Amino acid sequence: MSRSDLKHAGPSHRLERVAEAVRHAIADILQRGEIADPALDRQAVTVPSVRMSSDLKHAAVAVMPLGGKNAEATLAALRLHAKTLRALVARRVNLKFAPELRFELDRSFAAQDAIDALLRSPQVARDLRHDDDGDKV
């Protein structure tokens, strides 16, 4: 495999390990309530994923408030306290540079709900019955 093929192969194992360590650190900080903000105090926030840049200097953090309530207020509070969170993450994760944190809402739950609704639709159920009977589509 050539070097150019490796660039497009996806995240390396190291990137995935660092992203997971950053995710755990942020989740722990939020769970312990180490950020003093009313929007974060009354809201449980899940951190489903973190994507690291190849140089480990930037982290895109996907977050979702439990139940999806007050998502914009929670996101605004996280963005407001990004520098504080960055310092707290730097204490927990041993890296040469603390990554800059960029927060975004996690849309995977909504996409999963849309796929589930599609699979439960009558047209798809009808097609699945035909496939189970051995009929050709």
Mind explaining what this structure looks like?
- The protein has helices at 3-7, 13-32, 38-41, 71-80, 82-92, 108-119, 122-132, and strands at residues 45-52, 58-65, 100-105.
- With 137 residues, it is of the alpha+beta class.
- Strands 1-2-3 form a 3-stranded mixed β-sheet, with helices on one face.
- A hairpin with a 5-residue loop joins strand 1 (45-52) and strand 2 (58-65).
Order of helices and strands: HHHEEHHEHH
Count of extended strands: 3
- Tell me the overall shape: flat
Low-confidence stretches: none
**Rg calc:** 20 Å
Look at the structure and give the mean pLDDT: 84
Structural class: alpha+beta
Between the first and last Cα atoms, what is the distance in angstroms?
40 Å
Describe the largest sheet: 3 strands, mixed
What's the multimeric state?
single chain
Number of helices: 7
Task: Please give a handful of descriptors for the protein shown.
137 residues; alpha+beta; three-stranded mixed sheet; flat
Task: Give a concise summary.
The protein has seven helices and three strands.
List the SSEs and their pairings.
Layout: H1 3-7, H2 13-32, H3 38-41, E1 45-52, E2 58-65, H4 71-80, H5 82-92, E3 100-105, H6 108-119, H7 122-132
Parallel strand pairs: 2-3
Antiparallel strand pairs: 1-2
